[in-house]
Design brief:
Length: 222
């Protein structure tokens, strides 16, 4: 198939498709408590889009704590076990509003659709919320070696879609994710707070603010 000028649309997962930040927060907070460390909601905000390893490094740094490499590995494992426990019963009701409508409009228009997530749990989460069939390509934390703001995850997604980066757009809720999209040479749309996502081309509070006309005229129509 000739993919020239076909549009690729790459979605981040956490905070864009599904509201997992609250589960990550509880898991990190329980872990911090077990070690006598401080971890607040504001701290959690700074971990959006940040890999599991980097998140633990930051929590240690904020608490001026030093641990052995063995304990570091053990805590990473423990955090994920707590997180998996919290999302065990996740179902389609945890999709963020209107995400399925946007996916459907893009699919109906023939766009290539990809996931570009830092999470190593992305595939089971997409399955739980029953959105996997929309995605032509999934690139997640198990496939990349460099975390956002490095563009690797989005460049891999574009490559697997067979679409040039300049013909791709990204939806992201994290500052590092917007930076990664721009570093990949892609258009970057923010989902969330415009005061934070200042580098995005445009920011929508959530997908309810992105109507089909805008998608057709300004995203698909470019
Ligand atoms: C990102 C989340 O998408 O994935 C981060 O915004 C999270 O909060 C990161 O730390 C890694 O996720 P996981 O599921 O591999 O621990
Ligand atoms: Mg995110």
């Amino acid at each position: 198939m000739n993919n020239k000028n076909r549009l690729g649309v790459i979605f981040d997962l956490d905070g864009v498709i599904v509201d997992t930040a609250k589960h990550h927060f509880i898991a990190w907070q329980q872990l911090a408590q077990s070690q006598g460390w401080h971890f607040s909601l504001e701290d959690n905000e700074q971990l959006k889009g940040v890999s599991r390893v980097r998140s633990l490094e930051l929590i240690l740094q904020w608490n001026k704590a030093q641990i052995t490499p063995e304990l570091f590995e053990q805590l990473l494992k423990e955090k994920n076990e707590r997180y998996l426990n919290l999302i065990r019963d996740m179902d389609p009701s945890e999709r963020l509003p209107d995400v399925q409508r946007v996916l459907q409009v893009l699919k109906d228009s023939g766009c290539g659709i990809a996931l570009g997530s830092a999470s190593k749990n992305a595939r089971p989460i997409l399955d739980k919320i029953e959105l996997t069939p929309y995605f032509d390509v999934i690139v997640d934390g198990t496939n990349v070696s460099k975390a956002k703001p490095d563009p690797e995850v989005f460049l891999q997604a574009a490559n697997q879609l067979g679409i040039a980066p300049e013909d791709c757009v990204v939806f992201e809720d994290a500052v590092a994710g917007i930076q990664a999209a721009k570093a990949a040479g892609m258009r970057a749309f923010g989902i969330g707070d415009p005061e934070q996502l200042t580098q995005a081309e445009r920011v929508f509070k959530d997908f309810t603010q992105l109507d089909n006309t805008y998608i057709e005229q300004h995203i698909i129509g470019r």
